[in-house]
Amino acid sequence: MAPNSPRIVVLPGDGIGAEVTDSALTVLEAVQRRVPAAALDLVHLDAGAGTYLETGSALPDNVIEAIRGADGVLLGAMGLPDVRYPDGTEIIPQIELRMIFGLYAGVRPIRLLPGAPTPLGDARAAGLDFVIIRESTEGLFAHMNDGTVEDDEVAEDRMVITRATSERLFDFSFRLAQQRKAAGHPGKVTLVDKANVFKSMAFFRKIFDERAEAFPDIATDRQYVDAAALNFVRNPWDYDVVVTENMFGDILSDLGAGLIGGMGMAPSADIGDDTAVFQPSHGTAPDIVGTGKANPTAMILSVVLLLEWLATQDRGAAFGEAARLLDVAVCAAYADGALVPYEAGGSDGTAAILKRILENL
Ligand code: ATP
After folding, report:
1. What is the CB-side half-sphere exposure of residue 340 using CA atoms within 13 A?
2. What pLDDT, in 10s, does the model give residues 94-148?
3. How far is the CA of 7 from the centre of ligand 1 (A)?
4. Relative to the CA of 77, which ligand 1 atom is closest?
5. Domain 119-259 carries which CATH code?
6. Does the domain made of 1-104+271-361 have the CATH classification 3.40.718.10?
7. Ligand 1 pocket member 287 (CB < 6 A)
């Protein structure tokens, strides 16, 4: 490894998180044999529900410190339904990480790999390729730990939108649309909100309109979230970059994953100004853990996002080359239509999918 290789903290987490992380690390080693200059200094640590059971902390201080000293994080999935804090809430350190490190831009690519299964029966689905940017530090999650229930009669949570985060979020989205436009995409950002009902959402839209003026080369659209849900199913090829509030993004990105074959196909990156966390969009899938049915594709495509991001952070062109090679290999694995993951009704699990991707490297 080169002395100044980027340092990446690896947190496999719980449930299928560990299974798909194993596959991702195997693939990463294979890519690095092809591109030795894309070396990483991997720091393997534990966090999540299992760590909470063992140590009393789901996100120990040494993990937070390691992330502070690292370039980025590769994370499997965290949380188990029956391991909870004493107040009954779920253990979700991956969401705490977004708050602690200001990872405001949740990047969720919705790209249908040619040959991969999809419930969309329209020929236009073949070119489906858009990106959801889910704001990931505020919105309805801003006060996720301090909602109230009064006298067992009234429960309240709060929505928070700040100018500072919204401006950074929209600028990030417009810059992404510019990069995509340079690569042949339409160059459009669609804001998804509920500005017709909520003050916070009208404010969100006002800031979007202000920031849009700084990017005259990018087209804009605005949709209410209910209409967007309909359109995601009916005309998903209309989108290029979609930017939205935290909770709306949480819901719409699962809908998007459904369009491209399921949770096992949907990667993600949570990006801030100082660091970033790369993880599949899915959770720990307790219903299939240990069965060999977990699809590692989302996790492996999250490694592609990590390598691409390192290239944009001026860590060397080798990372861009490694990202491209790995992406081509994942696409090639699905191209002939023979690979059908369990989640899409087929019989290809972790080992078979990993094998196909390695063969194509
Ligand atoms: P979270 O709230 O942490 O996002 P969740 O409870 O919404 O998690 P997931 O763990 O993502 O849900 O699982 C949702 C469904 O998708 C489950 O039926 C699970 O088996 C399936 N699933 C999730 N990830 C994968 C995967 N990688 N491969 C196959 N199936 C998966």
Report:
1. 9
2. 999 999 999 999 999 999 999 999 999 888 888 899 999 999 999 999 888 788 8
3. 28
4. 3
5. 3.40.718.10
6. yes
7. yes
